[in-house]
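Re: folding output
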Amino acid sequence: MKLNIYKNRLQKEHFTTLSIDEIFHLIRTNRGDTPKNERLGVVYASTSLKGRKHEDIDTYTGIAFIDVDNCRRPTFVKMLFQELDCTIACWYSSSGNVHALIKIPVCKSKDEFKRRYNLLVKDLKEEIDDWGQIDEITSNPTQLAFMSSDAEIFVNDAPVSYEGIYLPTPIKMVRKLKFHYNSDASTNWCIDKAKEWFNGIDTNGYPQVLRYSITIGGWCASGKIDEFTARQTIEQLIKGNPYLNSKNSSGSLTTYLSGAMASFSKGLDMPLEWN
């Protein structure tokens, strides 16, 4: 399948077409310093031999483009999309937010596309609203998305189609959205080990806090525990440790927390496995 490529948002007709893999390659290798008015635009949801009006659409591609703006934690939002079985790909946008492509059935009309898109966004908002805002301008199947740069673009080789759709009157919903989070077993193991370590700190706390936090970050990087749960666990254990909150400790609570989060972030770049 070839997607339409535009030189800029003012261009009414595409000047070339590229396959989805070619587009991913450009995102992965793009230097990221292209001036805004020179960035190539892609229409993901539909193709056309003519212009970008709805009446010009020839085919729907089976792709819903999702643009998440105002991300408070872009890394976490990107991770959420990586955990979705219907995600085709996700990457950072040029503004530092997140773009994602979701696999849906190939639609036969604008109305069908809208009904599938609207339920998809409703489902996504339940997970994402605390972390960013979905720009629903992408409900337009001819909407341009400008290429950005992300060497770590996530690509799912075998996405499963999201089958959700708003049905005509009487109003019913068919919903299928599955997040494949880290297994409960691995998450619980990480939490139990963190409790064992942090609850055992009763002297010289700062080096231990840093060492434990960077290790947990490594587990997070290898998919053993999700980032939100890991950070929350570390914070709660530090705040709940009697020694770290006492006058006899080697640092302040603020110092422990900031040091822990800095070390955890370092660990995210060093995936760790366990036997």
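--- second protein (sequence, then structure) ---
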Amino acid sequence: MGTASDIAGSRGALPIPPPPASLAGKRGIIVGIANDASIAWGCAKAMHACGAELALSYLNDKAKPYVEPLAQSAGAPIFMPCNVENPGELEALFEAAAQCWGSIDFLVHSIAFAPYPELQGRVIDCSRDGFLRAMDISCHSFLRMARLAEPLMTHGGCMLTMSYLGADEVIEGYDLMGPVKAALESATRYAAFELGPKGIRVHAISPGPLKTRAARALSHFDDLLSNVEHRAPLRKLVSIEDIGALAAFMASDAAASITGSLLYLDGGYHILG
């Protein structure tokens, strides 16, 4: 039997594949950047570095000054307001992508919200209005985005959303967001099933805790960070760069046969039970 070099030589030079996470020629929408510490920004940085063209959004005029320099550094040709509670803003973002590109290849949904009082007490004491608002912004908005993205993913694509371990087990202080994220994870699986025949892949990424703006609203958050850092098998917290690298890979052609996954990115903390 010949060596690997002999076999390669007999067939001619083997083609060199592109980098595993190459997104050259791909275009996508990323929703949820609040500042340079946002998970969504970690995704945007990585995807831009891998060659993707991006459509980015900001929540409102107050957030715009923090997000606009980031959008400029990523060369985003589309930069628009998108508050999913404001009628028409979400639709306008997707329409802009359709007008600019004609089609998209990926979507990153990284928004979550619950009214502050609902994060300070028992889940069974949450108000009806607070529960419905948290579910609408954090979960149903992903389904609305999936519905808008579907006709634009003419050659298949990838949809990603962000969850947390508190969806699958009780994490003290995560409170109402636990049931909301559990619903989001279930919605991800159903969307993967429904969109799979069109070549559209759907995943939820479940990072460990990070010092993001949204996380600061959670009670006992500092204790949570310390616990993960000292108990996770890898003895480390994850970064937005870690999440971005995973998101870029999942949106790439290298992950074309994977869908419906819940992807833990927490230094192994989730295996502790």
